[in-house]
Records
---
Amino acid sequence: MNDDDLIALIAPDIPDSQFDSLRRAVAVRTMARDDRRRRPDGTNSHREGPRRTMKVAVLGAGGLLGRHVVEEMARRGREVLALDHAACAIEDARAVASALAGCALAVNCAAFTDVDGAESEPDRSFAINALGAENVARATAAAGAVVLHVSTDFVFGGRLDRPQDEFDLPEPLSLYARSKRAGELLVERANPRSHVVRVQGLYGRGGRNFASRLSSLLREGKRLRLDGERRVQPTSARAAARAIADIAATDRWGTWHASCRGATTWAGFATRLAARLDLSPTWEAVPSAALALRAPRPPNCLLEHRRLALCGLPPLPTWEEALEESLKERDLS
Ligand SMILES: NC(=O)c1ccc[n+]([C@@H]2O[C@H](COP(=O)([O-])OP(=O)(O)OC[C@H]3O[C@@H](n4cnc5c(N)ncnc54)[C@H](OP(=O)(O)O)[C@@H]3O)[C@@H](O)[C@H]2O)c1
C-alpha cells in the first residue's frame, strides 16, 4: 500500500488543505517500516534516523476512532505514526516495544470491539483488550512516554439513575466489558503517566458499526428494530478525537469520560437523524430485551464528564450538536 492509498483509507474525504500534513504524517510511518525491514533481527533501536522526530503513535489507526485521532493530531501539527493492525498487533509485546520506541505519546485505539462476539472468544478478547493494552503501557513506560488508552462506558453496570462519573465503581456485565476493564487496570499499573479515556456510542465516516451505517439503512427504507430503552450518548468520532487530543495535552493522569453530552436512545437518535434527512420512519422502538443481544449491556450508559469540568478542559458538544456537525461534514453517508 503506498502513502496515498493509506491516506485514502484513513481519511477518504480529507480536504486538500489538510492533505499535505497528513501525507507528512503517513510518510513517517512508512519510513519507520522501511527502517525496521532493514534490520536483520527485526528490532529497531530508534536512536537514529527518521523515528527520532516521531511524537504521537496511534495504534488501531485503521479503525473508526483511530482514523479520526490521526487526523486530529495531524491537524494540531503533531507528527503522527499511524499504526494499523497490519503494522502493529498489540498482543505482540516485542512488536509494540519496537514500534513505540522514540514516541512521546501513544494513543491506543486498537481493540477487539465485537461486543457480542467476545462472549464466545474470551481468550482473544483478553489477549487484545487487556494484555495488548498492557503491552502498549509497558512499552511507553520503558520509553519514558505517555499512554492514552481508550476504554468504554460498558465498564459500568448502568444501574444508577444518574450519569456515571469517573469516580463511580465499574461493574462490567459482559466479557467484552470485563476485558476492557482489565485493560484499564493493567494500563494504569504499567505506566503511571497514563490516561484512560472512556468513550461511547461512536459513529462517523467509514465506521463499520451500526450507528455509522444508520443513515444508509434509513435511506434504504430497511425496517429496523431499535432500542428505545437504553440511555445512550451517541458520540461522533470527530468529537471524541478532539477530546482525546485535549486530554493528551495535560499531565492530569487518570480516568476521563469523553462522550457527547445529553441523553437519548438509539431510537431517539434515529428519529432525529431521519427528521434531518427528511425520511419517513422505518423503524420500531423496542425494549432492550426484545433485541436479545448475546452480551448484556448496561441499561444506563450515560457518562458524567466530571474530570473534564474539574480540570478546565473543553466539554464535548451535545449529541444533537455533534450530529449536526457530522451531517455538515458528510460523515454520515
Ligand atoms: N465504537 C464504539 O461505539 C465504542 C464505544 C465505546 C468504546 N469504544 C472503544 O473505542 C476504541 C476504538 O474503537 P472503534 O470504534 O474505532 O473500533 P474499530 O473501528 O473496530 O477499530 C478498532 C481497530 O483495532 C484494530 N485491531 C483489532 N485487533 C487488533 C490488534 N490485536 N492489534 C492491533 N490492532 C487491532 C482493528 O483492526 P482490524 O479491523 O483490521 O482487526 C480496528 O482497526 C476501542 O478501544 C473501543 O473499545 C468504542
Note: The longest helix spans residues 16-38.
---
Amino acid sequence: MRTKGNEKAESWDKIYREGKPGWDINKPAPPFEDLFQNKHDWLKTASLISFGCGGGHDANFFAQQGFDVTAVDFASEAIKLAKNNYPELKLIQKNILELSPDYDQQFDYVLEHTCFCAVPIEHRRSYMESAHNLLKADGYLFGLFYRFDPPDQDGPPYALSMEELEKAYEGLFTLEDNYIPKRSHGRRKQRERFILLKKI
Ligand SMILES: C[S@@+](CC[C@H](N)C(=O)[O-])C[C@H]1O[C@@H](n2cnc3c(N)ncnc32)[C@H](O)[C@@H]1O
C-alpha cells in the first residue's frame, strides 16, 4: 500500500545503494556551523528532531553541541549509513509525515536540510502540519530550505518560492528569520535559504 508521501522511499534506497549520494557532503552544512559563531536567543540546547537525516552529519553536529537529537529518515539505507557514520545517534526509520500522534509535542526544534525539497509538492502542507504537531509550544522549525529556483516541475529536489513556502506554513508558524547563507555548499550557493519558523 502507498502511504502519504512514501511513494519514493524505495527510490531513495536505490540511490544510497548505488554509492555516494550527490547531496551527501560528508560533514554538517556550513551555515549550521556558522549559527554557533554568534549567540541567538532562540537557540538553546534542547530536544531536536532532524527530518530526512540521510547520513546523519547535521544530526550528529547538533548532538555534539549538546542537543538531545533524534534523527529520522524513511529510507532503510539512509538509516544504515547514519548508524555506520555515527553509532551513538538516536535513529528512527519512519516517514516524517507519519510521526504524529506518536511523537506529538516531544521536540523543541525540528531541523530541515534538503528534506522539504524531497517531499512531493502536494504534501508540503502535511510536512508543515507534521512539524507543528511534533513541536512543543513555542518550538521552532529551522534550517536550510532548498531550492529557490524559477518554477519547474522537475524533482526531487522540487523548486520553491518564498510565496509557496509561506502558503505551506500559513496559520501554523510565524517567520522569524530568512536569509541567504554566506557559506552554502557547492551548487547550493544562492539557491538555499536559512529559514526560522516559530510555532503558533
Ligand atoms: C536529499 S536527501 C538529504 C539528506 C540529508 N538531510 C542531507 O542533507 O545530507 C533527502 C532525504 O530525505 C529522506 N526523505 C524524503 N522524504 C521523506 C519522508 N517523507 N520521510 C522521511 N524521510 C524522507 C530521503 O530518504 C533522503 O535521505
Note: The domain at 9-17+29-35+42-199 is CATH 3.40.50.150 (Rossmann fold).
